[in-house]
């Protein structure tokens, strides 16, 4: 399109404002408090900001999966580095939320009903793309067909880690068909053959530099993810103690129980065996 052509597109673009481009009207009119409690604004904004960052992370992880499928390691590294920087950013939100005291929170907690972070579908999409495939999660969205079909699609796709293992195979380091042709709708289980292959990558890093760097990017990502969960747990403990959750779980007890899951178990195990 040339600069002087007078299409509807150019007219619109010439007049487009900052808030048009960023769709600020819908975004900034979406903080609807259900109570008249002052601190509910903080609660809503923290969640919305976290969801926006999750949107970016999903975009970058999808990009990294596509890059890896084509053995394009450099773009994949850039995308994964951006994910980790975003994770570092999102963790800071807990410091802001921790300014909410138990007495402030109980004043508007009832107005949340049974809603819970447990239902964050972008969080579940992240888990699916990273490798935690929990079929019972899909049931939560039975009555929300649009969300369900998006989630189902990610549930059925190979994960970021599946693609990393395929890259190991293409490099001639891995050939175990039980892993390479696994049912990708299940969570990956730690396997000795996978650990052995990554161990070779670490021991001969000069020869397998791309895979070595990829492994460390995955460890970064998992490390940050665990830190996010730990900070969630501690912030929740600080605000609601041992009360049960609005989502029906045992609250902090539940969050503790699910803390010890790994997306990329062999990359952690090799630290012991190497
Ligand atoms: C006062 C603040 C918060 C409290 C008291 C809280 C409490 C809880 C509790 C008790 C659960 C367990 C499920 C349940 O029974 O409800 C949970 C799960 C969850 N929360 Fe929060 N939360 C808070 C803030 C946040 C924020 C800011 C996020 C960011 C989006 C978040 C994301 C999640 C996610 C993703 C889960 C599911 C975790 C899993 O199943 O592994 N929460 N939260
Ligand atoms: N599960 C929380 C409620 C909660 O935190 C929440 C409620 C509605 C929307 C997002 C929430 N955040 C994270 O779990 C609680 O038990 O207090």
From TrEMBL:
Q: What is written in the cofactor note of this entry?
A: Binds 1 heme group per subunit.
One of its Pfam families is Trp_dioxygenase
Q: Which residues form a coiled coil?
A: none
Q: Name one GO molecular function term.
A: L-tryptophan 2,3-dioxygenase activity
> What pathway is this protein said to act in by its record?
Amino-acid degradation; L-tryptophan degradation via kynurenine pathway; L-kynurenine from L-tryptophan: step 1/2
Q: What is its EC number?
A: 1.13.11.11
Q: Where does this protein hold substrate?
A: 43-47, 105, 109, 246
Q: Where does heme bind?
A: 232
Catalytic activity reported:
L-tryptophan + O2 = N-formyl-L-kynurenine
The UniProt keywords, alphabetically, are: Dioxygenase, Heme, Iron, Metal-binding, Oxidoreductase, Tryptophan catabolism
Q: Which cofactor does it need?
A: heme
Give the first-level EC class, as a single word. oxidoreductase
Q: Does the keyword Heme apply?
A: yes
Q: Is this entry keyworded Heme?
A: yes
Question: What does the subunit section of this Swiss-Prot or TrEMBL entry state?
Answer: Homotetramer.
Give the family, as the similarity comment puts it: Belongs to the tryptophan 2,3-dioxygenase family.
Function according to Swiss-Prot or TrEMBL: Heme-dependent dioxygenase that catalyzes the oxidative cleavage of the L-tryptophan (L-Trp) pyrrole ring and converts L-tryptophan to N-formyl-L-kynurenine. Catalyzes the oxidative cleavage of the indole moiety.
Protein name in UniProt:
Tryptophan 2,3-dioxygenase
Q: What is the lineage of its organism?
A: Bacteria, Bacillati, Bacillota, Bacilli, Bacillales
Designated gene of the protein: kynA
């Amino acid at each position: 399109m040339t600069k002087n052509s007078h299409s509807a597109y150019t007219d619109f673009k010439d007049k487009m404002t900052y808030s048009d481009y960023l769709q600020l009207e819908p975004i900034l009119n979406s903080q609807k408090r259900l109570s008249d409690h002052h601190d509910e604004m903080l609660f809503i904004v923290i969640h919305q900001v976290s969801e926006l960052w999750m949107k970016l992370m999903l975009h970058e992880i999808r990009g990294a999966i596509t890059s890896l499928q084509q053995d394009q390691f450099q773009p994949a590294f850039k995308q994964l580095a951006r994910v980790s920087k975003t994770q570092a950013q999102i963790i800071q939100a807990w410091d802001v939320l921790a300014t909410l005291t138990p007495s402030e929170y109980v004043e508007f907690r009832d107005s949340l009903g049974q809603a819970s972070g447990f239902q964050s579908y972008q969080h579940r999409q992240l888990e699916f793309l990273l490798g935690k495939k929990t079929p019972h999660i899909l049931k939560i969205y039975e009555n929300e067909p649009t969300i369900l079909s998006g989630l189902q699609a990610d549930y059925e796709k190979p994960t970021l880690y599946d693609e990393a293992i395929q890259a190991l195979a293409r490099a001639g380091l891995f050939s175990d068909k039980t892993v390479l042709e696994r049912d990708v709708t299940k969570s990956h289980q730690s396997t000795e053959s996978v650990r052995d292959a990554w161990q070779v990558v670490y021991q001969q890093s000069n020869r397998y530099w791309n895979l070595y760097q990829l492994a460390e990017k995955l460890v970064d990502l998992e490390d940050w993810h665990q830190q996010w969960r730990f900070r969630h747990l501690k912030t929740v403990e600080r605000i609601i103690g041992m009360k049960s959750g609005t989502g029906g779980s045992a609250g902090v007890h539940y969050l503790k129980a699910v803390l010890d899951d790994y997306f990329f178990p062999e990359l952690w195990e090799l630290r012991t065996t190497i």
